[in-house]
Amino acid sequence: MKLQTLLMSVIALTICFTANLVWAGKIVIKGSTTVLPIAQKVAEIYMKDNPDVKISISGGGSGNGIKALIDGSTDIADSSRFIKQKEVKLAVEKGSYPVPFAVAYDCIVPVVHPGNNIMNLTMAQLKDIYMGKIKNWKQIGGHDRPVVVISRDTSSGTYEVWYKKVMQKKRVFPRALLQASNGAIVQAIATNKNAIGYIGLGYMTGSVKALKVNNIEGSAETTLNGTYPISRPLYMFTPGWPKGDTLNFINFLVHPEKGQKYVSEAGYVPLY
Predict the structure, then answer these.
(1) Which residues pair with 213 in a beta bridge?
(2) Same domain assignment for residues 81 and 111
(3) Cα–Cα distance for residue pair 225/3, rounded to 1 Å
(4) Which end of the chain is more exposed for a tag (fewer CB within 10 A), N or C?
(5) Full-prediction pTM beyond 0.85?
(6) Residue 262 φ then ψ, to 5°
(7) Which of 95, 22, 37, 33 is nearest to 245 (CA)?
């Protein structure tokens, strides 16, 4: 079994090296819509400095990005959660071994329409809302209006973190409206005075209102010091140790004086 694992690792590195030769000058990035603004911002700067390199970026969710990594259709998978053991197993079976790179930090912020008078919710109240136990805003000090619950779909890394940290692995109730991206949730909340959703910090706009959680505001400071209860690292995964343009791009992104300064411009929390 150890010999088999070693051989697979060697094969994975060989495939990765060959792929970089074939796709020299082109990087494909797929996955998390949370990580998407970071990838887009840094890629824009990187391509200006390296005009011979073309970077193609698309969203679709963390799960879809990791699927693309497994089937070999992307060089980098963006993910707002860590890769699952079953996904690693599938990747190894197909000849690659995913390598994680933390690229930023983020916090997940519950948001409501600006016309909602609620300012703060506890973790327990959030769980009860998403389990369908709290059905009217007046139950928690709000207006006499029905609560419209909006959640991410299960392929989302943001959903995975919400499911573990807020829901404590209890299912979101079936009548919740599912959206495929952070941007879609912002649009849905902005047009519905009764709705609640959750988004990555980088997607905050004036069209929605952020709620405090346990009386703590989601921010760069509270994310880094660990006081905000719904925070997480953001990742990029490669199919084996990266080489060539892919390695150069990731090195640029995680460099404190290069890519990391654009992380905060994208609305997220730098590593350093």
Answers:
(1) 121, 216
(2) no
(3) 43
(4) N
(5) no
(6) -90, -15
(7) 22
